[in-house]
Amino acid sequence: MKKITITLVIAALAATAAVLPSSAFAETVVIVSAKNPATRMFSEQAAQFFLGKSTMFTPIDQADGSAIRNEFYKKVTDKDAAQVKAIWSKLVFTGKAQAPKEFKSNADVKKAVADDPKAIGYIDKSAVDDTVKVILTLQ
Length: 139
What we know:
signal, ABC-type phosphate transport system substrate-binding protein
């Protein structure tokens, strides 16, 4: 009986892991260029840049519909990606801001951020190297 229970638990865990997106197990970090003097940031501060409320940094976004993007916006802004897209649409329409550039992968986001000292982006922690600096780790 114990063996059957253990087998069922293992099977359930394996099935759950197969359904979850890979980013569910990854840690997301907010990054800036290694050339940027910033060393630390709070989620509330990061939200200001990714919601178009501050132009101190240029936000760089992951691909629309990606799991990391959805998770990032939920954790940092307490909004889903569609709500954030609506905010940016209004800002662009009124001429107050330009929407963040979108990139397809962690590597592309990292390169765009590394190349621009004013840029801010987010990637999986496993993709960090010495070209960028982590200023916020999302829990």
